Amino acid sequence: MPLSTKSLLRKFLIWKYKHISELQFIYVLSILAGFLAGMGTVLLKNLTHYIRLLFELEFFNNYQNSLYFIFPIIGLLLVYTIKQIWLKKHIGHGISSTLYAISKLNGIIPRYNIYAALITAPLTVGFGGSVGLQGPAVSVGSALGSNAARLFHMNTKTRMLLIGCAAAGAMASMFKAPIAAIIFAVEIFSLDIAFTSLIPLLLASVSAVVTSYMFLGTDVLLRFELTDKFEINDILFYIVLGLVTGIASVYFSKVFFGITNFFKKFESRAKRLLIGGIAIGSILYFIPPLYGEGYGIMNNLLKGDHISAIGTTPFNLDLSNIWVVIALLLGIGVFKAIAMTTTFGAGGVGGVFIPTLVMGSALGNAFAKIINNIGLDFQVSESNFTLIGMTGLMAGVLHAPLTAIFLIAEITGGYELFVPLMIVSTISFAITKYYVSHSIYTLRLAQRGELMTHDKDQNVLMVLDIDKVIETNFIILKPEMKLGDILKKAVAKSSRNHFPVVNDNHEFLGVIRLDDVRHIMFNSNLYDKVDASSLMHADADIIVYEEHSMNDIMDKFKTSGAWNLPVVKQGKYYGYISKSKLLTAYRQQLINFTK
Known about the structure:
- The protein is mainly alpha-helical and 595 residues long.
- The protein contains 26 helices and six strands.
- It has helices spanning 3-19, 22-54, 58-61, 64-87, 94-104, 112-126, 134-151, 156-175, 178-189, 195-216, 235-264, 269-286, 295-302, 306-310, 322-345, 353-373, 382-397, 401-412, 418-435, 443-447, 456-463, 483-491, 514-517, 532-535, 550-560, 579-594, and strands at 470-471, 498-502, 508-513, 543-544, 564-569, 572-578.
- The strands form two sheets. It has a four-stranded mixed β-sheet.
- A hairpin with a 5-residue loop joins strand 2 (498-502) and strand 3 (508-513).
- The radius of gyration is 29 Å and the shape is elongated.
- The two termini are 31 Å apart.
- The mean pLDDT is 81.
- This is Chloride channel protein.
- It is found in: Membrane.
- The chain crosses the membrane at residues 21-43, 63-82, 112-133, 160-186, 193-215, 235-252, 273-291, 322-339, 346-367, 387-408, 415-436.
- It comes from Flavivirga amylovorans.
């Protein structure tokens, strides 16, 4: 930052401390975070739109099917080049990376996250990658919120709140659904529902929506007006739909993790690009509706135009046969998860949110068509079941039932479908939760013990930095050291009452405590006869730096009853953690969380 800018910022901060309270300034920053998130979302949508316009030129019309194969590979190659040559940094999945920054980096998100997704996501989606823009929008907004908080020297708690505000702003701007955006921030980012956090979320959400209206007008991504009311006679069908979307959510999650693990086997990004690019190109060639995000599928199904939703295919199929249409819609639902994850595996940048809606809309519409055409005189609203299918997939895959309910309710402009929304989202979420313990966003973080939840005690332990509680100023002993040397070089010079014993490779062998030598320390006849190996013993437990989380460490202290435990890092002795220092650090962090 230039000197003059630093000087102006310093003067502003001094003025702020004198004239504006901390809470008032948080409100101002939340409005700013919403505006920036809204601007980031507008840029993402416009850049993607302009890239797509290039491919709508008449020149490309004659080669449309072939280009479905070629364009995604070109987009992935451009993203690969930008990552390798310019950014030279990893770009993670937007929401997962943001959750990691909250739980392990004290809400500090690198500045390059602001522009990385802003460039690579439109290239991925604009060229046909079968992913969404919601994740990148959250990534851009969260990075803006984090860096705005750092610029104005806000504390960790405020920084995390502003990340939540920016995430809510990105959601509100994308769908023009401010209430669902607030619930999304609370549900996904585990923010406290308190007055101090609710008002900033409201301000950010409204600010982002207003920004979206200013630059995009009244245009919305999902265009639908509810015309068919909820019929109590359809309640059994909604229950069955909940079961179907629950099973589909489990399938979606399993496919995501399975394909992701497959691509991890290839260390070379170039190999991932080659394999993934050919795979996604082939899928899109045979199933063109999977090209890009898929808003066309959802909007056409909501309008009742399944012919436009399916589009043109390389097969000469009879679309006047409703069962052929149903089969194609089911195929879209099944292959959307595969196409999305393959795009990620090949190096594409995008989000999971929109693909879940696309899959849900296809399955919900196909389900309604099956009911209406099995010849039993049943008649249900296909548009309503399309919407409810989207809710079921969102609730299951993202583990966000409340977000799913309120997003669809806001999109429809009312709460006529609130009962079926609740039924389907609850059943789908329950089934998915049973088979997949965490969402796509959070599973990896949960497995590493890095997931922020609504459990405040666990969150406090999670954000504690293990390096800040490890003490390394212990005098180290070798197993061959004699008692005389131990007393002279260790006991006499240390205020500690325990001494780690390591071998020549610095591997931890055991510990000698002052009580272990107290009864012989004045017997000079033993000074040259007794060595450390005969005095040392195993410690109560061992902490492995790379494996054990703060929660694990606290459990070890509880179960062992010890007041000090050794830490081993990369197989070598590293230091000790004392229970008293850990509890002191915990109390201080708890104060930071609650003040």
